[in-house]
Amino acid sequence: NKRFFVVGLGNFGYAIAERLTELGHEVIAVDLDPETIDRIGPLITRAAVADATDLETLRKLGGDTVDAAVVSTGDDITASILAVLALHDLKIREIYVKVISRDHGRVMEKLGVSETVFPERDTALGLAAKICGRSLLKYLPLGTNFSIQEMGIPNSWVSKTIGELGIRQAYDITILAIHDILTDKFYATPGPDYRLKDSDTLFVAGTDQALKRIALID
Amino acid sequence: NKRFFVVGLGNFGYAIAERLTELGHEVIAVDLDPETIDRIGPLITRAAVADATDLETLRKLGGDTVDAAVVSTGDDITASILAVLALHDLKIREIYVKVISRDHGRVMEKLGVSETVFPERDTALGLAAKICGRSLLKYLPLGTNFSIQEMGIPNSWVSKTIGELGIRQAYDITILAIHDILTDKFYATPGPDYRLKDSDTLFVAGTDQALKRIALID
Ligand SMILES: Nc1ncnc2c1ncn2[C@@H]1O[C@H](COP(=O)(O)OP(=O)(O)OP(=O)(O)O)[C@@H](O)[C@H]1O
Ligand SMILES: Nc1ncnc2c1ncn2[C@@H]1O[C@H](COP(=O)(O)OP(=O)(O)OP(=O)(O)O)[C@@H](O)[C@H]1O
User: Fold this and answer.
1) Rounded distance, CA A67 to CA A1, Å?
2) Rounded to whole angstroms, how far apart are CA atoms B107 and B78?
3) Which superfamily is assigned to B139-215 in CATH?
4) Is CATH 3.40.710.10 the classification given to domain A3-117?
5) Distances (CA, A) of B106 to A20, A215, B166, B206
6) Could you read off the pLDDT of B100-126 as tens digits, one per residue?
7) Which end of chain A has fewer CB atoms surrounding its CB within 10 Å, N or C?
8) Which residue's C-alpha comes closest to atom 7 of ligand 2?
9) B161-186: per-residue pLDDT in tens?
10) Ligand with minimal distance to B74 CA
11) Nearest CA in chain A to B114
């Protein structure tokens, strides 16, 4: 099992601190709000009211002993930057940051964090795909950057065969199976001659980047 | 193409209004903030400064002609409820709501909305699974007769390439990814030239019969 540091316990930080603990890992969390710390205290390894921009405070709490950190200080962009820099000083190399704007994301990429998430935007893109009738019905992570998802057929793929579309080469994803909604049949490992219908859904697997790309096709 | 109504243009509402437009649909959006409306105006079908809790205002803007609506009024839970009720009065049956807490979600379920999203929480759960590097799988059923499993390399496959072995054709399974145990790297959708090592494990997908057969190979 691993040890994680979570900075900032808004909805996102709180949920991830809880979830990592449920998954059997140790979580140390800090936040400026005593009520939040009191609420989460019993649920995780350790929680403290503290300013995460302060290097010595982080070190005292064991911030230098963790495998990875999550930074989610909400609207306070400066705090998120200072917290990332403090974590770098403690030699924490795996840092995930919840950002609140594209520019915030760009700053974090410049700082070399492992990954940024932008929940409002990421979820909006996912819901948009769904409500146009192209659903990402299931999403299953398989490893650090590899997952499976179920998706509807992009309009431009309807009536074409898998071979014609050259999906694996073009998008770097594998089609595991086709679910024919009308007959409720599964076609496992479909071959290149399978012709896609708009009533099909696909189970596809690949890296998150590849899966994001494929969700954007019309 | 479809027509959508978006109520509230925070990060989520703004992103979904933009994205639905990119996907070729019509979007009518309302918000209380004139600056936001000015910014999105040129990008979508129609944008207006308006209070979405007012039925007549929504009707005047064409709210009764849309296929579906998205409600994302942020912290104002009461506004979100009144907006949903107004949309119901306009006979809009497909309504998606961005909620800011579990209780907010429960209210929306009671109101019978199509779906709620809770971006901070949904994204946190997704990231948690990722950063534990958890492959959830030893064996994962995806449908009534379709599953994924993780397996070691049969001795007879070591040092052969995927192409040489003709695995898909011979065994009717798909190799989703190779997990190189020594480097802890995942190789998604490996190509035919990938040469198998005895320290690899494979994530394979197929019917249960196919997976059973493959487990018996030496
Ligand atoms: N320097 C800091 N050190 C520790 N915690 C901080 C610091 N700055 C801000 N925080 C904490 O980060 C949290 C951010 O939560 P807030 O609800 O503002 O934003 P958020 O990340 O947008 O939340 P959500 O995940 O709900 O969208 C607050 O609880 C705040 O106390
Ligand atoms: N009654 C209403 N009618 C129309 N718009 C409203 C109404 N009430 C609130 N809004 C709008 O909803 C938007 C909500 O955005 P805000 O940034 O507060 O929250 P949010 O949904 O949490 O944002 P984000 O998606 O960035 O997390 C605001 O721009 C506000 O003007």
Assistant:
1) 10
2) 11
3) Regulator of K+ conductance, C-terminal domain (3.30.70.1450)
4) no
5) 24, 29, 51, 38
6) 999 999 999 999 999 899 999 988 987
7) N
8) B73
9) 999 999 988 998 888 888 888 887 77
10) 2
11) A131
